[in-house]
Amino acid sequence: MPATETMENAMPDKPRTRIVGVGSALVDILLHENDVFVSRLCGTKGGMTLVEKEFIVGAMRSTENRPQLVPGGSACNTIVGVGRLGGNCAMVGKLGDDDWARLFREGLRASNVEPILSVGLGATGNVLSIITPDAERTMFTYLGASAEMLPEEISAGLFYDAAVVHVEGYLLFNHDLIRSVMEAARSAGALISLDLASYTVVQASQEYLGELAHDYVDILLANEDEARVFTGLKDEQAALQALAAQADYAVLKVGCRGSLIAHEGEVHTIAARGDGTAIDTTGAGDLWASGFIYGLVNGLSVRDSGELGSACGYEVCQVIGAVVPESGWQRLWHLRDDLQAQTQG
Question: Is the backbone of residue 73 left (phi > 0), alpha (psi -120 to 50) or beta?
Fold first, then answer.
């Protein structure tokens, strides 16, 4: 586990507030279907499977339902959330040279996010996200150009003014790349946030993930399935403590029951917003991370950061996809301002 640093001393001369995301730049294809459809595709419900582009094309031909197309990718969702909250942020990734890439860049700029996006040889990647009636989503991912990002393209200069570098767990499929990102972030003096992304990712990277988390990660975010697979523990409190042994800030998200945050020997229980119902859980964990990390680097307490994260996660669960509507952001801005006023008061 890296040496503990607070947000105040991460940069001695002045506080840093910039948050940089690193991950796969993808376009989400959101499709409403039933469990039978997921089974026919041989998908593990609630998981993520890497596929070729032809698989997604074939799946789309086998449905009569019309999908929605939105900019996506786990780290991107989080950084867009930070940008909409008013944060200073950027996104590092790789796109193709096509219409979807242009849509992606424009979407980042519209959300107050600086694009740091190189161009690969392949097409812009996409994710078929199948949403079943219980609001669960099962993902089939074609990485495309996003998989062409190389370790040697990552340098500390990308993160020179970052308070936090937020890394999506899907990069664990490329051991050299994710280690290069974390080494560069550490060299730049940034704290490192890692979202475990999917329990299938954790299963595929168990041993390497443990080593990486111990050596580099300051903020570790997991849902209950990911935490159970990573720690081997079914009891939530025990799993949370096992996560806390790896990182200074350990977050365990427990769906409609809220979340638990362990930091400096204290556990904060954050209640879920609303009645816990969801139309679609796509992006829920990503937007939770938006509020939490934004709060930490902008002076909120751990609990208040968790409250803002919970509110962001709730708002995205009330719509299809990971794009919170303007009415939702109005509520989130009001909460942000209230929490910051209480901190300053």
Answer: left
Which residues, at least 6 apart from 239, have a Cβ–Cβ distance to it below 8 Å? 224, 227, 228, 231, 233, 252
pLDDT tens per residue, range 232-271 = 999 999 999 999 999 999 999 998 899 999 999 999 999 9
Beta bridge partners of 220: 194, 250
CA distances from residue 61 to 65, 75, 123, 154 in whole angstroms, order as listed: 10, 29, 20, 38
For residues 45 and 198, what is the distance between their CA atoms, to the nearest angstrom? 11
**Cβ 52 vs Cβ 152: under 8 Å:** no
Residue 27: CB partners within 8 Å, gap ≥ 6? 69, 70, 71, 72, 100, 103, 104, 124, 125, 126, 127
As a whole number of angstroms, the longest Cα–Cα distance in the chain is 58
Domains of the chain: 18-25+74-121+148-344 (3.40.1190.20)
How far is residue 225's CA from residue 45's CA, in Å, rounded to a whole number? 12
Beta carbons of 127 and 47 less than 8 angstroms apart: no
- Whole-number pLDDT of residue 2: 56
Residue 332 near residue 338, CB atoms below 8 Å: no
Q: What is the CA radius of gyration of the chain?
A: 19
Which of 211, 206, 197 minimizes the C-alpha distance to 253? Answer: 197
Structure-token pair, residue 84: 């909409």
**296-344 pLDDT per residue, tens:** 999 999 999 999 999 999 999 998 778 899 999 999 999 999 999 999 8
Tens of pLDDT along 209-224?
999 999 999 999 999 9
34-43 contacts at long range (C-beta below 8 A, 24 or more positions apart): 34/132, 34/133, 35/132, 37/62, 37/63, 37/130, 38/130, 38/132, 38/138, 41/130, 41/140, 43/130, 43/138, 43/140
Question: How many residues are present in the chain?
Answer: 345
Q: Which residue has the higher pLDDT, 48 or 289?
A: 289
- Compute CA distances 123 → 53, 77, 120, 158, whole Å: 9, 20, 8, 24
Query: Is there a contact between 104 and 75 (Cβ–Cβ < 8 Å)?
Result: no
pLDDT the model gives residue 136: 84
